[in-house]
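Sequence, structure tokens reproduced for reference:
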Amino acid sequence: MEAIESTAGPSFCLMKMAQLLANFLSQNRMAAIMEEQCRPQKKPGFPLLQQTLLNKVVGLPDHLGNRLQQDNLTLFFPQNYFRLLGEEVVRALQVIVDALRGGLDCSVSFVSQVLGKICIQGRQKEILDVLVPQLTALTQGSCLWQRVCWRLMEQIPDRAMEAVLTGLVVAAPGPEVLSRLLGNLVLKSKKAQFVMTRKLLFLQYQHTTSTLQSLLGYLAMDSQRRPLLIQALKELLETWGSSSAVRHAPLAQQHYLSAAILVCLAHLGEPELRDSQDELLGSMMAGVKCHLDSSLPTVRRLGMIVAEVLSSRIHREGPPLRFQYEDDKLSRELLALATPCTAGGSTLEAGGSSPAPAATEILEKTVDGEVESANSSVPQVRPQDSDSDLDSDDEFIPYDMSGDKELRSSKAPLYVRDCIEVLTSSEDMERWEAALRALEGLVCKSPEATQEVSVELAKVLLHLEERTCVSGFEGLRQRALVAVTVMDPARVAEYLTSQFYALNYSLRQRMDILDVLTLAAQELSRPGHLKRHAQQVSSGSGGLCLPAQAACQHDHTAGSGWRAVVEERIRSKTRRFSKGFPRRELANGPNEFNSVAGYFFFPLIQHFDRPLVTFDLLGDDQLVLGRLTHTLGALMYLAVNTTVAVSMGKALLEFVWALRFHVDIYVRRGLLSAVSSILLSVPAERLLGDLSEELLEARSWLADVAEKDVDQDCREQAVRALLLLERLKDRLLPISP
């Protein structure tokens, strides 16, 4: 190595020495070097020689790459060299084990330093992918090999402990393997305990679920290590229940903490949880409140799942908590993690896989409707006296009831005023439901009649409550309210925006107002929306269909059946030499949202900073503030090419600038979406002419968000907004003087 480093430039001598070194490595001589360093030495210069050898052994790929450059040999590539070094470490350890069996003294300190230095340089995967499988097999039935591995890990320097343990936990196939390789290292080394119970659980949240199960399963496998598992659960719950962590931690980290809590609960027994019941319950209640107050649906669902599992495990005296949340892949995976483990401390085998995928697969099959038992391969024997074969109806063809309609005794109202009367004063629930279902079609069919009572009808629908169990009640109510707003946008929008900041409204009603305004603006901005409404009403989509009309349509359908058959035969027998592509006529018409955009936008943005007795956007009602920011951004985007777009953009930029440092992730996402809507809707010339100072301030803020925000979606939206700014600048650069 010294001769290669002292050679100036490429030469025959340099390549000859490199080939000699490659031949040296291929003959397993590196194992002999490490074996020699593991024997007791009494020479005065031995520590200096050992440190020099350590630097040369670990830094060989870098030195050879710098000297040989393009002529470097493949053996000296890092991905090849460190795998070879892993094989040599196993051979050296085999010699040490044989020497110990013969009664000789040996030390694994040099091998530990080599392993630590390699992992510090970021080459854990290359060497541990070779070491872990072989050490797993060697420690399977040998206590001596286990003692050698424990000593190997104990001799690793503290500065390299984190890198080695992180790579080892990731590479180990399960907690049993990890326990055989590490022993009680977490009890003997403070650095190892800090890494295993703090860093890998709280800071390094990029690891997979199987890695997390291996780590916590290792702590649970030995009675001396189980107190560390209980302490880890307490600290995890304390962090999980912190309002600051819920607001500022990335979503991936919160998911990782929730999964770690569920895995801890799966490994702990009821007596262990009972000893810390009061402390765990206190942390759980604080955490549930913080999670349910979050404006992100995923965070709320994490809080619900963890609270359900935790309450069922630590509070068996009373009924456990129950929540309603979406049953999707995320929920099933988290619930599978909480499945209690066997008495052995873990359900993982050496070389096996995590139990979570199996449990998840079972749950997925159950959800998909497949009924499979654990012993489904065993045929089920029917009783001899069963009459199922005698009374079987399998040979009968089921009657097609797909076209049947429910018979109702009450007729639907035929006029909008009648619907208002029924919805406000009728005690007949069938008539009330029929009026609600027919209202949207009547509103679209009679614009003049709707405009006469539009504000009154909007008030009725806004305060309408579900009197009986109506399928799709919220959708029917929302569509009717949107239809009323589209028919009379100015007056209804003015009423809805005034009620958004009024007293005695629930948060649900305020968010309904925002949803209705967004959907109505979207409908008004579409070209030809009035024609489309007329076509829907004429086709019967509004829910109004008289019996005579239905009978007439049925006769017409039956009479035109033979015509369709004849036309199909003619079409199949006709030869055409060329046939052009059918042209779809694009819908056109004025943008109806142009004249009423101000009624939708400006009243919403005026009073956001004025708290009410029961409504404070800048206080606890962050969810509504997030919905408001998204609604304002959507209205801004729908106001493209309108005359009021510049004024809306300037007001929205001031709104964004006032809330740019908000702590809630959902609010920041809405603000970034609003900035992108401004850049897309306001003409570029007016942006740089009237809003140049605001854009300069927004650009610095966007760059800061793209670099430092904890939420990935916020960073991505900030990058997209910066790209839009650059595109606008490039487009107007030739025009500028």
